Amino acid sequence: MGVFFTEDAFLEKLTAADPDASGLIRELEGLARAGAITQAESFAQLLEDACAERGRTDDALAALQARASWRESVPVTAREHFRERALTLLGGDRARRSLVDHAGFDKPIPLPEAIRRLRILLQLREGLLCHDRTWGAGIIRRMDPLYGRIGIDFENRPGHQMSYAYAAETLTILPPEHLLARFLTDTDALRRTARENPGEIVEWALRDFGPLTADQIRERLSPRLVAESDWKTFWDAARKALKNHPRVRAPSRRSEPFTLHAEGERYSDEWFAQLTTLRDLDRLMEMLEERAAEGAPLPESKLALVTERLEFVARGASGGRRPDLLARARMCAADLGLRPASLEPSPADNPWSLPHLVQALRRLPARKLERYLAFLDAQDAARTRTLLLDMLPQLDLGPFSAAMEFLRAHGHENDCIECLRGWMARQEIGVVAMAWLYRNLDLAVEWNIGSPADLGRRALDLAEESFSGELLKAQKQLKERFGKPETLRRILADMSESQRRDFIARLRRSPGWTPLDRQAMLGLLVRLCPEYEALVASDTTAPSSKTPAFVTCALTSTRSYAERQAQLRRLIEVEIPKNSREIGHARGYGDLSENFEYKAAKDMQAILMRRRGELERQLRETQPTDFNNIISDRVVPGVGVELRRADGRVERYHILGAWDRDETLNIISSESQLARAIMGRAVGETVALPDDGAGPAVIERILPLPESVLLWARGADSEAGST
Fold first, then answer.
1. Could you tell me where the DSSP H helices lie in 160-222?
2. Could you tell me if 507 and 460 are in contact, meaning their C-beta atoms sit under 8 angstroms apart?
């Protein structure tokens, strides 16, 4: 397909009886990639107008979306131009024009994404089949343009409500023939097909979900479509049917996916021509991997082309830019029997360099982790296994799990146990390792990493820390597994009575969960373990002999206490009365059983009342103080602490109460993990800190609070910094 064409040629295609808008947009994208952005934009605007005049609004917006994607950055004034352009393309229909306000043109999101969301909103209607990444497939039952909300019957959550803006962000439209859509509308027919033609069901799954491993196919089809007890029979029949299917590629390894190819010759000259011009490294790598997975040798005439394409990937990924792409390119070259010079190990891109391998494993897709470790191991087993043990503390949860399974499978289980025991003994075990241990709790106990009680206390420590990115994902998984009633019951069963009291008391006030999540967790615990009801419901707890008395005393600064009081006051005086008015107004709409506005207002009332009760309880159980004139030879709330790190750095922190925190003044909460680690310690003591692995620290000095911190605690204005 040529990317250079005259205006006359473009207009001839545009004025055809039924112009191919998608094809024209692809041509314009090629023109833009070639650098002729101004010409491409001019043609795109002609296409937008022509489509809008013919009532093909989605095609017009698709052209507008493509035009927005051709520029790396779009200033605010240009964003407003695209918003006004979208309104123009929508014509005079007020209902459709109002959807622009929900698409995110005024939000800090990429402009093409805002246009994509608008295109989704324009398609939404009652009865439409859709999919949400959280709730799965559903049917739209109600559109409420007045309040900008949509009601959807999801498979396991009927009557779910979401805003137009959220729907535009997360929903995808399902065609009626999509497997998820047919789960909702034609389940009996699907089950009949699964019994009579298992291969066809798997083919549909590959068509609609893309490449899938055997395990992923089972996750999507069982038990909803195929009962667990029938799975082996189903899968044996499906594999037999697909064995000689002309469009299905069966993998050689269980961990690799089945792939459904498009109609026609998969690797034609046109395919290789597309490979030649492709500049997107990720897409290029995907195409090369698909070809390598075929297992068939490359035609002699294509060896040089594929070698050059692998060299292109290597040049773009080298120098530490994309270690994961280099890893994939090396495996792909090996599969194809090629040895591109750029993929040979070098000092800058040594696959056994610790930083290089850490980044490669972090960015590799999960399905490729196991294979890459085996690939490295086949080349240098001793170096690969030693390096994996050294890098375990730096890995995210996916790579950590893959590394642990690989090391165990290759005779290094004892080394893994030694690492985990050492981290636990030094209180250095991180959220990733702890999430893995909770996923394998029986194994953790068998390996004697720690008793269920020890693991419970450490999990609670980690649940209260602040994380981001992949560490936050690991923390969420840890909290989810920690919060299972059977896990809590196992932890508490391993504790003495006094330890249970301390643990439950801390769990009841832990900042690691929202009040509602914490209440639900404790409620489940009581239902499964009635013997703990008194402990959970109790307002008073006896301190453990190992816990300093000051830990059970909830203190906070006068400033933070006043802020919490102000929150409660606003709730009582503003938000709750406003909600009451909304309930009264909603009653006027008629039948309450079908009244969405009334239900929404009542749901909000329940949330506000729970929040009020939580704030009132917090204020009852917490004592305000200004922390004045506190002198102590041990670390307690109301003192400053200087810590000397192993590398000589000195850090100062000011420990106040449970709700206090200010990074500018180095104020930390007495409930923070750092404060808990040093609470009750004296000058000269060495402590293990729950941080980034910088090693132990020594308490250098314990100081009175400076005036700037005291002023902050009282709520007075103060200069940033401390003396």
1. 164-170, 179-185, 187-196, 198-209, 214-221
2. yes
Q: Classify the C-alpha dihedral 122-128-129-131 as positive or negative.
A: positive
Q: For position 387, what pLDDT does the model report?
A: 87
pLDDT mean over 103-112:
87
- pLDDT for the residue 515: 75
Residue 342 DSSP symbol: G
DSSP reduced 3-state for 668: strand
Q: State the residue for tokens 């994404």.
A: 113
pLDDT at 553 over 50: no
pTM of the model as a whole = 0.43
- What is the distance between the alpha carbons of residues 488 and 480, in angstroms, rounded to a whole number? 11
**pLDDT tens digits, residue range 259-275?**
887 654 456 677 788 78
Percentage of residues of the chain with pLDDT beyond 90: 22
Torsion of CA 131, 134, 138, 141, to 10 degrees: -110
Q: By the 8 A CB rule, do 323 and 349 touch?
A: yes
Amino acid (1-letter code) at residue 640? G
Res 643: pLDDT: 92
Q: How far apart are CA 620 and CA 143, in angstroms?
A: 44
Q: Residue 645: phi, psi to the nearest 5?
A: -75, 170
> Encoding tokens for residue 75?
């200033």
Distances (CA, A) of 647 to 546, 641, 642, 643, 653: 31, 18, 14, 11, 18
Cβ atoms < 10 Å from Cβ of 532 = 17
